[in-house]
Each structure stands twice: as structure tokens, then as C-alpha cells.
Specification:
By secondary structure, this protein is an alpha/beta fold. It is built from twelve helices and ten strands. Helix 3 crosses helix 4. The chain binds zinc ion.
Length: about 300
């Protein structure tokens, strides 16, 4: 099916008590792994592209890749810009056909963050594309865990979230509640009460960044409290590169690229599957009935979901 926006997807997830996985892709194999697994799990999914990935390959390349993957899938697929750092990158992605944007002004003073977010929202809403904003700050680590006391200074305050939401008009909100970007160890614990208080105050879907570093047992409570989109990037990169290292260790003279990207793609699929199940989004894609009731696409026929 064509790309869908994140608006209805996230509002429905927030209402029904699960979270949609938002997985970062850096190449074709990652896009395929994410969308194929979402389809196997009958889960709605967000493929997100960072500004770094866009600098690497171009917004148009990723738009084309994800549109092809979405077209072949019978589950809703969103193409989202992750951490757009300025207005320009947001406009470029809008033009390239992204169906969801993010402006991250968390490094800026409050008023400046609001002003630019508002600009992105006004432009994107003209063509029906929703926007994620960030208030508070999810810090980035060198891979290690950050002491909770240190993280607290970055936490999102519910009253600040309300003011930001009302002034900017964002559709979803990234919050700082105990996670950090690029953590290679899974040790972070979350301030669940804070998540619930923010959700209560703003009533829009909340987004958890840096989920690779968050302990699995924190996730169900965070989702129940109001997290409706969960970002996973580092963990996918970890397993992808681990498989490539393994393939090279087994045969250092291999020159056929596919001999190491294929197992890497397969390994990413299993992490995506685990996350989809942990977030509770498996089976949440609206059923598509074709070919006399079977869940199918041209080259795949499976049983319809209950
Ligand atoms: Zn992030």
C-alpha cells in the first residue's frame, strides 16, 4: 500500500495501549529487514531516516527505497525524518515525499525551539504531514550508561511540555524520561510517573528515543503510561555489524558483498521482530482481505489474522 502518515497510527496506538516501532534504516538491507518483518508480524511500522543517513545517501534515495518496500507490503508503513536539525532538512524531506517529520530543537532555547517547530508544523500541515517535536533533551552518550542523577537535568517537565505543545502545534512529542541515545548497554530505567503526567497534560502520543539502552522490563509500563512510538537505532547497527564481522572472520577473502549483507539483514529482522512483540504492535495492522479472504500480496499468501 502507499506510505501512510504517522498521525492516525500513533493516536490509535496511544488509545489502544501499544507502541509502534520506529526503526532507523541506513541502507536498502535495513529497509527490507524492517518492512518485511513488520509484514510477517502484521504490525504497523515506521521506517525512520536520520539526518546523517540523508547526508550519506540522499533523501530521494531513501524515499524511493521505502516507497517500494511500502508498496509491496500490506501493513501501514510510515517514512519518517528522525532528528531533523533545521527547517531546510524538513522541507527537503517534505518535498522528497516523507510522510512524517521531526524537528529537534532540544539544544535551542525554549522560544527558538517553539518558533522553528511552529514553522515546520505550518508547512507540513499544509500537505497533511504530521510533525514530532522534542522538549527536554534526550542526551547522546559514547555508548556507556549515563547515571540517572545526571540524566535528570535533561528531563521533560509536564508544564513545559504543555506550553510547547500549545505554542508549536506538534502531533507527537519526544520526551526525556531516562533514556539516552547511542547506549550500547541495556541498563536505562525510566521515570514512568513522569511519562504518565506528561501524557495526561498534553494528550498527544509520546515518543521514546534511545530505546536500545532501555531495559526490556521498562517498556510495557512506559507504553501503558503513554509512549506510542519507540525509536530503535543503535541495537540494529550493533547486530548488523556483528554479522558482517562474523562473516569476514569466517572467510576474510570473501569479495561477494551479498555473502555478508544477507546474514546481516536476516539478523536485523530478528531484532525488529523482538521489538515489535515487546512493544505490543504485532497483529495491530488493519486486516487486508484480498483473494477470497486470505491475507496476501502477489508473491505471498498467508492466513488472515483473527
Ligand atoms: Zn533520537
Amino acid at each position: 500500500m502507499p506510505l501512510v502518515t504517522s498521525k492516525d497510527l500513533l493516536e490509535r496506538a496511544a488509545r489502544e495501549g501499544y507502541a509502534v516501532g520506529a526503526f532507523n534504516a541506513n541502507n536498502m538491507e535495513m529497509v527490507q529487514a524492517i518492512v518485511e518483518t513488520a509484514e510477517e508480524e502484521k504490525a504497523p511500522v515506521i521506517v525512520q531516516i536520520s539526518q546523517g543517513a540523508i547526508n550519506y545517501a540522499g533523501a530521494d534515495y531513501f524515499a524511493a527505497l521505502v516507497k517500494i518496500a511500502a508498496q509491496k507490503a500490506l501493513v501501514p508503513v510510515v517514512l519518517h525524518l528522525d532528528h531533523g536539525m533545521d527547517l531546510r532538512i524538513n522541507v527537503q524531506c517534505l518535498r522528497a515525499g516523507f510522510s512524517s517529520l521531526m524537528f529537534d530543537g532540544s539544544r535551542l532555547p525554549f522560544a527558538e525551539n517553539v518558533a522553528i517547530t511552529r514553522q515546520v508544523v505550518e508547512l507540513a500541515h499544509m500537505v497533511g504531514v504530521p510533525v514530532e517535536g522534542e522538549i527536554g533533551k534526550v542526551p547522546t552518550t559514547g555508548g556507556e550508561a549515563v547515571p540517572y542523577e545526571e540524566l535528570r537535568q535533561f528531563f521533560t517537565k509536564p508544564e513545559e511540555a504543555v506550553e510547547f505543545f500549545q505554542a508549536s502545534g506538534v502531533d507527537s512529542l519526544a520526551v526525556s524520561v531516562g533514556s539516552a541515545h547511542k547506549m550500547k548497554v541495556q541498563e536505562a530505567i525510566l521515570d514512568i510517573e513522569r511519562i504518565a503526567a506528561i501524557r495526561e497534560a498534553v494528550q498527544i502520543p509520546l515518543v521514546l528515543h534511545g530505546a536500545s539502552g532501555v531495559k526490556d522490563d521498562q517498556i510495557p509500563a512506559a507504553v501503558k503510561a503513554g509512549i506510542a512510538k519507540i525509536n530503535v537505532a543503535t541495537e540494529l547497527g550493533k547486530v548488523y555489524t556483528a554479522e558482517i564481522k562474523r562473516a569476514f572472520a569466517a572467510d576474510p577473502d570473501e569479495v561477494d558483498l551479498r555473502k555478508y549483507t544477507a546474514p546481516a539483514r536476516a539478523a536485523v529482522k530478528e531484532v525488529v521482530r523482538e521489538k515489535i512483540r515487546l512493544f505490543g504492535s504485532q497483529g495491530k495492522a488493519p486486516a487486508v482481505f484480498v483473494d477470497g479472504g486470505a491475507w496476501s500480496r502477489p508473491d505471498v499468501v498467508r492466513e488472515a489474522p483473527e
